Amino acid sequence: MNQDFDELVRDSMTRFTDGIDMPPALVTSARRQRHLRRTRIAWLASGAAVTAAAAVTIGTIATGTAAGPVGPHRNGDHGGVQTTAMVITHVERALAAAATGRPITYTSQVNHGIKLFLVTPHGRPVRVHGSVMKTWSRGPLQRVVITAPGGKPALSTTTDNSSGKSVQTIVSFQQRVWWRGTYDLPPRTKPSIGCAVGNVNLTPSQWAKQVRKLLSCGAAVVGRQRVDGVETIRLKLSSSYRHACAGASGGGRCHPQSVGWSGILWANAKTYLPVRLKSHGRKFSFQIDFRWLAPTSANLAELHQRIPAGFKHV
Amino acid sequence: MRDAEDGDDLEHFLAERGSHLMRTAVLLAGGRQDGEDLMQAALERLLRQGRRIQGNPEGYLRRTLYNLAADRWRRQERWRRKLPVLGGGQQSAEPDLTAAVDLRDALIRALCLLPPQQRAAVVLRHWEQLSEAEAADVLGCSEGTVKAATSRGLRRMRELAAGWLDIDAELTENRT
To answer: B93-176 domain in CATH 1.20.1300.10?
Structure first.
């Protein structure tokens, strides 16, 4: 009987796998994946993290070559003559100065055509339905809140890396549950900051670096505009970069190809700190509002997620 | 060796052994899509190691498949109870008894419910037809462990399948 059973197991496995062959594109995919892995941030923070992946080609990009000269474009709008180079210098200095004051950096990001996932350390990414992502960050503390289309919070993740471990607190407002886990800190990885925004999953300080990089790749002052009651200088960002695997989806080898990227940056006309960054492709768009908040007790409280009464610990 | 030559060697190796390893990956992962993901991840590691692998890469690739599959099972197990609360729960391996399930289907489903080491041991011994010593080498354990894991795995599969079907009757039917 055991012999029969062993044979049956073997036969079951043979039938289950009958006709399965290695897909021809698998090696190409593995090669491409290996390349992409080198150039992306896999994790926003240690352990559980909210990340974003575009449904289309916003994915990951190789570090590009700078394109689009930063010439002395004149701002012909009211507000005086300001060369692009001067504005860029001011913005870069403002970002560097803001970082030294240890403010709470806050970003509010509205995405369209970009899927958000909760990346867990012990499982597959889980899709989170929401288009607005708000992030508060200061040193080892970070809180991310995903807002559902109706405007209510859907999910909050709080990360505290101050103890040498990563303590994650996740609250699901839709399911009215929360849990906390402690994880080893992952090895530090540098985000791929290139001449295009290839990853919208950046911390506020990484966004500051990304803005600096974008300015260095190609920018021109195009005027002034009021944004949320703030007088801003409007800069057109445009660059091109070499996409290592453009057009390789058919299973062929990677073909480096020059790809363009463009966006608009609004910088505060007084402080020169970025106020808003916007970009859109054929099937996706994102808009990020930046704020540098003083570390008042009210603002510091935003770094922590209070567990709402009645929520179940799972 | 130059990259192009490395690439050609890999293409030749996969042309010969790729399908067999792909089927192993499907059995370990419990499905075709997951099997392809597993195989791709193993190939990615193989490409990363590149020239450091001496000789035939099959041993390395097979060992990587088992290690990655085991890592995946452990991760899934820890998060399995968390995922449903986010609405992204994974499909259960429990058989759908409303569907017509024959014995072979039931055995594959039972295989997917085994703990990592038992599943790997059953696949290595009964699908790959490796000896206990060879299986022990792939899994990095003793022959005794392989023997025990295979035996327990088969017993568990039998118990699970018997809970869903009249297995002895099916075996009798298969013999006739």
So the answer is: no
